[in-house]
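REVIEWER CHECKLIST
Item 1: Sequence provided? yes
Item 2: Single chain? yes
Item 3: Sequence as submitted:
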Amino acid sequence: MHTQATRGTTTTKVSLHSWYGTKAATLLTDIKAAGQACTGAINALNGAEKVTLTAIVPGAPLNAGDESASFRVEQDLNGKKTPIEVALVRKGTTLVTFTAHSTSATAEKPAEVVAAQLKKLN
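Item 4: Structure as written out by the authors:
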């Protein structure tokens, strides 16, 4: 399930995924390790646009679910620097991802959206 909403210059996306067995826990563990290991720029394509992730900084995890992780990603999109805030929460075999992408200097996940989704998850 994916939902997306735009508020001002920030677009928020909520994704909900269900996994078998311990796959959700393994995936979140792997994402945490990858986020910690990223020390340099990563080049990628977003469609036809060149994207360079210039920094991935671990943030404070959300106090929710069985475990969670949070990252701030700085990207350079064709010369324009834009932030992305990512939070992941695992509850059992379910993993919910909150992504806030901004065209300005700040990207904040809307607290009321996060709270409403986490209430449904618990």
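Item 5: Key structural point noted by reviewer: The chain has a mean pLDDT of 82.
Item 6: Recommendation: ____
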